[in-house]
Specification:
This protein is an all-alpha fold. Helix content is 91%, strand content 0%.
């Protein structure tokens, strides 16, 4: 095999390796983006559920205290 043919094959192999690395890098970045988006949606959903629960519990506690006050004669 002549030196030129070997050099050409070497350059083709290097180019293919770089293309494969770029493709893998892009696929990895896409996967990371999807995981990040899914994680953010899960965090947002959980935060909303916790906030709703706190608001509901606060309302129920206020009603209970109000009712207790009425029973004890503090409020009319």
């Amino acid at each position: 095999m002549s030196g030129r043919n070997f050099q050409g094959l070497k350059e083709q192999a290097e180019g293919a390796a770089k293309d494969a690395a770029n493709t893998l890098g892009q696929a990895t970045q896409d996967a990371i983006n999807q995981i990040t988006d899914a994680s953010q949606k899960a965090i947002d959903k959980t935060s909303k559920a916790v906030q709703d629960g706190v608001e509901k519990a606060t309302g129920q506690a206020a009603e209970a205290v109000s009712g207790l006050g009425k029973k004890c004669g503090f409020k009319k």
